[in-house]
Write a structure and sequence with these properties.
Structural class: mainly alpha
Number of domains: 2
Oligomer: single chain
Number of helices: 4
Order of helices and strands: HHHH
Strand content: under 5%
Helix content: over 70%
Length: 90
């Protein structure tokens, strides 16, 4: 009996989440943001949420750019090339 309740509960939650994502995609609502308490209404356009997402993406982009620059400095450093040559001789 417990297994049946668990399966029904899991199916119900999965259905609600799937429906929420479908509504977000199809009708450009914010049902999932509303379910996660990120917006106050699923049907109003929340500019603050979009700007937070954009800021987060820009921060991630900037961090990745800095990491790539550091890697480029390491790889183009003549000492690193010399180290690799010495390592290959060993």
């Amino acid at each position: 009996m417990e297994l049946v309740i668990f399966v029904l509960l899991f199916a119900g939650i999965s259905t609600v989440c799937g429906l929420g994502y479908w509504l977000d995609h199809k009708f450009n609502t914010q049902v999932m943001g509303w379910m996660n308490m990120e917006v106050s209404s699923p049907f109003k356009s929340d500019v603050g949420l979009q700007s937070k997402r954009e800021k987060r993406k820009n921060n991630e982009y900037q961090e990745l750019r800095e990491r790539i620059e550091i890697l480029e400095k390491i790889v183009t450093d003549p000492r690193w090339e010399l180290y690799q040559k010495i390592k290959n001789l060993s």
